[in-house]
Each structure stands twice: as C-alpha cells, then as structure tokens.
Request: fold
Amino acid sequence: MSASTNHLRVLRFAALAPGPRLIVTGAVHGNETAGTRGIERVVREIERGEIDIVRGSVTFVPVCNPLAYRHQRRIGERNLNRRLLPTDAPEQYEDHLANVLCPLLAEHELLLDLHSFRSPGQPFALRGPADNDGALEPFAHEAAEARLAAHLGVTRVVDGWLDAYARGVAERRARGLTPGAVNEHPAYGIGTTEYMRSVGGCAVTLECGQHDDPAAPGVAYHAIRQTLALLGIAELPLAKPAAPFECLTLARVVDRHADGDRFVKMWTSFDPLAGGELIALRADGSEVRAPEPGCIVFPDHAALPGHEWFYFGQRSARGLSP
Reply:
C-alpha cells in the first residue's frame, strides 16, 4: 500500500465483454480499514486468477483518504464524507480528494462503500431514498439498491440519511449558528453514496462492524464477492439473502451543543429506546429524551459542539425485496 498522501491508488479490472461498471471504496475515513483489508484480499484473488472478471468492470480504491489513513484517524483536515463535491477553489486536503473522487465515481454505475464504526455492534447497510422526483435527493434506482443491500450478508438496513440531515440543518439555523457555517447547508450531508446518486448511479454503504473487530474485514470481503457475483462481473457463487430484514429509517439527528453535553450511558448503535426515555443531559441541565419508541443510531461520544451527536431511528415503512 502506497504511503504517499499525494495520490490515490486506483485499481481497475475491465472485462472484454460489456457489463456493469462497479466501484468499491475503502477508508473514506482513515481509521476504518475493514474495507481496505477486504479489497486487498479480493484484489489478490483476482491477480492470482482465482476470481476472473468476465463482464463489465470493477474499480477498487482501497484508501480514499491517504492523509487520514496514514495517521489512523477519521479525518485528514475535515470529514471527506461530508460536502463531497467538486470545487474550483480547493482549500482543505479533502477538497483536493473530492476533485479526484467525484469524477471517478461518475464514471461508474454502482458503488459499494465500505465503512466501520466506533462502538460495538453488528454490521448493517445504508441505502438511499425511495424513487422520487423531489428537490433534495431525486432518485430512480430504489430496486437496484434494495437488491444489492439484500445480498451483502447483513440483515439490518437503514435509510433516511439525507432527509434527517436536512432536518438537522433547519434546526441548526433555528438555533442561530454562524451564518454560512458549512454544517448549516444540506450539501454538508453529501458523501460518497449521495454524490453517486446525484450523477445517476446507485450506491450502498456497508458498515462492516466495529473498527477493530477482527471479523470486519471478512464482512467486507464477503460483500465484495457477493456484489461481483450478483452483477455478473465475476462467475462466483451467489449466497441467498440473509433475510428476514430489519428495516429502519433515520428520523432525526441531534447535535451536541456544548462541551458539557453528555450521554447518560454508553450508548451503542441500535440500542432500543422507549418513548420518553432519557438519552442525554445538556450542559444547561436540560434533558434530551426519545420522542417516541425507537433506537439510537451513530452515538458519537466524542462529537464536537455544533456537530451531529446521534440519530434517532424508527422502523421504516419501506421493506426490502431482493
């Protein structure tokens, strides 16, 4: 693996026969290396001839943020998976990365984005919205995303990311944050998958498990092979979906306001919440309670003031049909 922070290592295998164009990304956050290890294992198998790319193409970006990866931390200078858009005036390291990653994503039809998370928990997938022609995230590939999510080897699928983030933006504005702050704009919620959908593709994020879970790279490896098989890019056995599925939606994002804000316990993602249950206490003594029954998602015990602290999840009205 290259130690340079001045370029991205991109590996592409193109079959002689036409077919889908898949891109697989790892280490969008530098301390999330399960995807990197899974990609490296699959690439070795392709190069040894154990996997044959027979249709279409697959592109691998094992490390999307080399600076963050070198230091084994989440970000280089900012979060690459927020405000992932091309810019004519790049300022931070991740802006320069976006100017390379975004055109690369746009060359493809499908994205499998591999991540991991801080707290203990089971792997899960995140998909995009239902088909719609709205202004926030218009989309027309719901069925393709559902089919991909269903075959990745997980049974929990979450949606609603950008909707929840846009509602969070409205709440930030209502609190009177500094005008023009980047996290006051819905575009701040755009990451790899949202950008992929904005250029006509479809995308699924796979959260492979806890960062240091020795099983997480195997989750990524299995998901990549399943995706290659599902799309017919490689002639590999395709395992059946791991149904039944638990489908959840992110209904609300809650920000941390001050350094003194604290959780009342060490929450982990998908811990259940009863209606009215106490989740956290603000520095001013006010309580943060669950508005109704649901679960906590992505609790960030190290969140900075003004940034997302946790999400409130509920059962999704959308099922998952492979």
Notes: The CA atoms of residues 55 and 233 lie 5 Å apart.
